[in-house]
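Mods, move this if it's the wrong board.
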Amino acid sequence: MNRLAHSRVYLVGPMDRAPDAGIGWRQRIQHDLADLHLVWLDPTQKPIDIGIENPESRARRVAAKLAGDYDTVAKEMKIIRHVDLRMTDVADFIIAHIDTSIYSFGTIEELVTANRMKKPIIVHVEQGKKNTPDWLFAMIPHQMIFSTWDEVYGYLRHIASTENVESSGRWLFFDWQGEVIGRPF
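Not the wrong board. Structure tokens:
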């Protein structure tokens, strides 16, 4: 059984201030969880030809800010924000990477948006669960916050394969033949 097969998962986390532009952890998780046959919504590899974030677009925004050309920054970022929030909308669940040493404003908005939709949000905190920002404990069931990627992987494999899962009130699984195959407890 793989109840997560073909689920759409959006990979949320810092990009513009991350040393590797947020690419590394996203590539690793897609490789490490390839056997779950997930549909990856990765903002570093957007499935659309607008709102692309790459070294050239980042350099253009940095130059625009230095020149005081905030209209250019705003115009470009509005498209990026629109695409990223749309990926939040269509995702079945979210995997978020939080690094408390990197300020990440888009990540916060994406998490708030997904939380209001009661989507499952799996959080990896780079500095460990004990360093999770307090506010997240009020938003997300703490059972879905992890210190290591191995814990994230184990949790997702558990959700994918265990007959009766404790869903923290977030997971709903539909049999597209018309029968519910998983319910929150």
